[in-house]
Write a structure and sequence with these properties.
This is DUF7691 domain-containing protein. Pfam families: DUF7691. It comes from Streptomyces osmaniensis. With 206 residues, the chain is α+β, with helices and mostly antiparallel strands. It is 53% helix and 11% strand. It has nine helices and four strands; from the N terminus they run βαααααβααβααβ. The chain has helices at residues 12-16, 24-44, 46-50, 56-65, 77-90, 106-116, 126-129, 149-169, 177-194, and strands at residues 5-11, 92-94, 143-147, 199-205. It has a four-stranded antiparallel β-sheet with strand order 2-1-4-3, with helices on both faces.
């Protein structure tokens, strides 16, 4: 079974602030613009909805209003996808071609590649287990994580330090080409974020 990452460039703090904002105007905009998408999601998850899971718009409204949330753990996925919808609305989708689809421990392998280049401030595996913002309930799928502006700045400094060390020694860490490609895609995400003050990255694994 394969997984995928959806990665967004956005103002992390402003996006998190949408949770519990009670912004009914935002809900109206989403309903008007993405009604067909909401209906498609309801059709896809029709069985779960029959078992009591909230519909897509109901979950979205709960996220924006900070609750109420279903007590059933099996229904929490809808709130994760609702938060992802908010990120897709307010952010810019980033190229994820090296991560979609992926299998097995690929995210961990890429993290090892980042660490081999001295980058420890960020982790792509964080997008799998980082968790949704409070007070949203925990759900395994979709996984969610974020890279804040501070983490990104530190990671890019770590990368530049490794580049300088490689230039001086003439020896680069031995990495498989596909890992190098994935790491460089991560560097690209971070450089896009650094160009916009206050911006970071939020990613979802599903």
């Amino acid at each position: 079974m394969s997984s995928s990452l959806s990665v967004y460039l956005l103002d992390v703090a402003a996006t998190r602030a949408l949770v519990g904002s009670r912004d009914d105007q935002l809900l109206e905009v989403i309903s008007d613009r993405f009604g067909d998408d909401l209906a498609r999601d309801d059709n896809y998850f029709s069985y779960e909805i029959e078992q009591g899971a909230p519909k897509a718009y109901e979950a979205l409204r709960a996220v924006v209003h900070g609750g109420p949330f279903s007590d059933e753990e099996d229904h929490a996925f809808q709130y994760g996808y609702a938060y992802k919808r908010l990120c897709s609305l307010t952010g810019s989708f980033l190229d994820n071609s090296n991560f979609t689809p992926h299998r097995g421990d690929w995210l961990s392998v890429v993290d090892q590649g980042l660490k081999a280049l001295g980058i420890t401030a960020v982790s792509v595996e964080e997008f799998s287990y980082g968790g949704l913002p409070s007070p949203l309930p925990y759900t395994f799928t979709p996984g969610c994580g974020e890279w804040t502006p501070g983490q990104i700045a530190q990671a890019l400094e770590q990368f530049e330090a490794t580049k300088r060390a490689v230039d001086e020694s003439g020896e680069a860490p031995p990495l498989e080409p596909e890992v190098v490609d994935a790491v460089m895609q991560c560097i690209g995400w971070m450089r896009h974020a650094q160009e916009r003050p206050g911006f970071g990255v939020i990613g979802f694994r599903s």
